[in-house]
Amino acid sequence: MNVLKRNNVVVKGKGSQVMMFAHGFGCDQNMWRFVAPAFEENYKIVLFDHVGAGRSDLSAFIPGKYATLEGYADDIIEIATALDMRDIIFVGHSVSSLIGIIASQKSPGLFKSLVLVGPSPSYINDGDYVGGFTKPQIDELLESLDQNHLGWSMAMAPVIMGNPDRKELGEELSNSFCRTDPEIAKHFARTTFLSDKREVLSAVNIPTLILQCSDDVIAPQSVGEYVHQQIKGSKLVLMKATGHCPNLSAPEETINAITKFLA
């Protein structure tokens, strides 16, 4: 299968240094439309849709493969191989932060640095670790998604977006969730919210920026601080942006933080 078609890969930009942008759960590459163009003048930009999202090839969705984040990481490695790209600056939002970390460890030298936007290695509280949710809360969230995908999407999107005074943002995220095939959305939600990848953090050995939003119900500040503590030498930026999607709600602040890190 043509990997580039499978993941709806788009390459643009004038530079030689590659930046790859990876979207989170329920989204697609369109979520980077306010951020990625700022880097096109000086970088080569790679955008893609995870299989099951956006304009990816839905027929390529294999439940067994995508039951783990490793399946998504393998796709990223395949995209980079198809494009003959190495030493990439990887920018991952939400669950894609962890997918990127996994890809970097499966294929050393693939990435030059990591930018993790709202990362969470585990959403479930465990002893001293505060992931933001109890196991029953996650079970309830997944059960609600199973029973009513559209209702869940419309109720959860504004909460995740976290900008109640800007309803259009919540509506955009809700529409993105609703466009996703319900069965694939349920599957990816399980893979996302039930994964525990805390063990991969300490092995990260490339420059890493962590962007932590204020009032993020999905990845609270305690999680960002945990990721920062586990990744030696990482840089943690506490953003003024609220919610879980600063790439939509605060693109200028997101661009500025990434630009400063890359300088």
**Tell me, what is the CATH class?**
Alpha Beta
Number of helices: 10
Overall mean pLDDT stands at 94
Ranges with pLDDT <50 over ≥5 residues? none
Q: Strand share of the residues?
A: 15-25%
Give the strand line-up of the largest sheet.
1-3-2-4-5-6-7
Largest sheet: 7 strands, mixed
End-to-end separation in angstroms reads 38 Å
Radius of gyration: 17 Å
Instruction: Provide the number of structural domains.
Output: 1
CATH architecture: 3-Layer(aba) Sandwich
Q: CATH superfamily, please?
A: Alpha/Beta hydrolase fold, catalytic domain
Query: What's the CATH topology name?
Result: Rossmann fold
Portion in helices: 40-55%
Task: Outline the structure in words.
- The chain has 263 residues and is an alpha/beta fold.
- It has ten helices and seven strands.
- The mean pLDDT is 94.
Task: Provide a concise account of the structure shown.
The chain has 263 residues and is α/β, with parallel strands linked by helices.
Which properties best describe this structure?
single chain, 263 residues, alpha/beta, Rossmann fold, seven-stranded mixed beta sheet, 10 helices, 7 strands, 41% helix, globular
Please render the helix and strand layout as text.
Elements: H1 3-6, E1 10-12, E2 18-22, E3 44-47, H2 69-82, E4 88-93, H3 95-106, E5 111-117, H4 135-147, H5 149-161, H6 167-179, H7 182-193, E6 208-214, H8 221-230, E7 235-242, H9 246-249, H10 251-262
Parallel strand pairs: 2-3, 2-4, 4-5, 5-6, 6-7
Antiparallel strand pairs: 1-3
Helix pairs in contact: 2-3, 4-5, 4-7, 5-6
